[in-house]
Design goal:
The structure holds 2 protein chains of 2 kinds.
Chain A: E1 6-11, E2 17-22, H1 33-50, E3 56-60, E4 63-67, H2 70-88, E5 98-100, H3 108-120, H4 126-129, E6 134-136, E7 139-142, E8 145-148, H5 150-177
Parallel strand pairs in A: 5-6
Antiparallel strand pairs in A: 1-2, 3-4, 7-8
Chain B: H1 2-11, H2 16-21, H3 28-47, H4 56-67, H5 80-101, H6 112-116, H7 131-146
Helix pairs in contact in B: 3-5, 5-7
The chains are: A alpha+beta, B mainly alpha.
Chain lengths: 178, 157
């Protein structure tokens, strides 16, 4: 919103009017918003990665993907959470904070126990422990792309397509009203 | 007309991102369902529902007309399932090209190919074992064999 608060007004597919008061974030449809957001947070994210040179990472805007042994990856994540809050007042999204343990030897229960034990091993991980991250040996979503075993990827895509099919029905309703 | 534009540009394009990034066999059934729903919606809107009385042949013909590109006399609603192979192929080939260009450790950037595709020589498809790269090889062969595509080079490098 570039420092300006405003009220967004929109009418949904059923004709219901909504008013949304906004003071942060960007305006939907602002084409340059994504670039401005990425350019703003890139230095903060980059500095954290510089302090963890052994960690591999890729990111699109604030969707960050870290590949490393658990202990090192969590150290980076803990620092990232702190720095993003300090520098940019950004909070890590609990829903998206997930740990993928690709392994043929561990099941999800073992991976969860390993994750919990590792979180408990350092004081600096306490913040992350409170986020109750999802842990899986079969599924991961990176920037909206499903990665994991075939059954899960198929299910993920089917759910996404179901959402589109639902919206097709809403457009049918809209055009009938028009 | 508004319904057509919203269907074509706002809904039919939405699975494109997943189609580019997911091997087609895992998504083709779902995308086929979406194609059918969009065609049904278009026909219902366009005929006021009278298309329900059409013969199977006439409905197939209308589906073809709706999905053909404009320059071939159609309405340009690209079938999601049908375009998924080329979407995945183009996207993954771009990734291979990009990783190949950054596969030199002497560059300022890290050797990205080694970091993100360890053990996979980007210039040698025979060395590929990663699922996404083996899928790319399969689609390359499929496009040549069944879709009348031609390889502009004598070897796939």
């Amino acid at each position: 919103m570039q420092g300006h608060s405003l009220t967004l007004r929109f009418t949904d597919h059923s004709g219901q009017l909504h008013h949304l008061t906004c003071s942060k974030g960007g305006q939907q449809g602002d084409g340059f918003k994504t670039v401005r957001f990425a350019v703003t947070n890139h230095p903060s994210i980059g500095r954290v990665f510089q302090r963890h040179p052994d960690c591999k990472g890729a990111a699109i805007c604030d969707d960050i993907f870290v590949v490393d042994p658990l202990q090192e990856a969590l150290a980076l994540e803990a620092e990232l959470k702190l720095i993003l809050k300090q520098d940019l007042d950004l909070d890590l999204d609990v829903f998206k904070f997930n740990c993928y343990v690709p392994s043929n030897r561990l099941n999800d229960g073992h991976a969860r126990a390993l994750f919990k034990d590792t979180l408990a091993s350092r004081q600096s991980f306490l913040d992350l422990a409170a986020m109750d991250a999802g842990v899986s040996t079969k599924e991961l979503r990176v920037a909206g792309v499903p990665i994991g075993d075939d059954a899960w990827v198929t299910k993920f895509v089917a759910e996404k397509v179901e959402a589109v099919i639902l919206d097709v029905g809403k457009i049918d309703q809209c055009s009938q009203m028009a | 007309m508004i319904h057509y534009h919203m269907m074509r540009f706002c809904q039919n394009t939405r699975p494109g991102f997943l189609a580019r990034n997911t091997p087609t066999p895992l998504i083709s059934d779902s995308l086929g369902s979406l194609d059918a729903v969009i065609l049904e919606s278009m026909c219902t809107k366009g005929t006021g529902g009278t298309h329900m009385d059409w013969t199977h042949e006439l409905r197939s013909f209308s589906s073809i007309k709706l999905q053909l590109p404009h320059h071939r006399g159609g309405f340009g609603i690209t079938p999601c399932a049908g375009s998924a192979i080329s979407a995945f192929y183009a996207s993954t080939a771009s990734l291979v090209r990009w990783l190949g260009h950054h596969g030199n450790a002497q560059q300022d950037l890290a050797n990205l190919a080694d970091v993100w595709a360890p053990g996979q020589d980007m210039s040698n498809p025979d060395s590929w074992t990663a699922p996404i790269l083996t899928a790319l090889k399969c689609y390359h062969a499929l496009l040549l064999a069944e879709y009348v595509c031609t390889d502009c080079r004598t070897s796939f490098k």
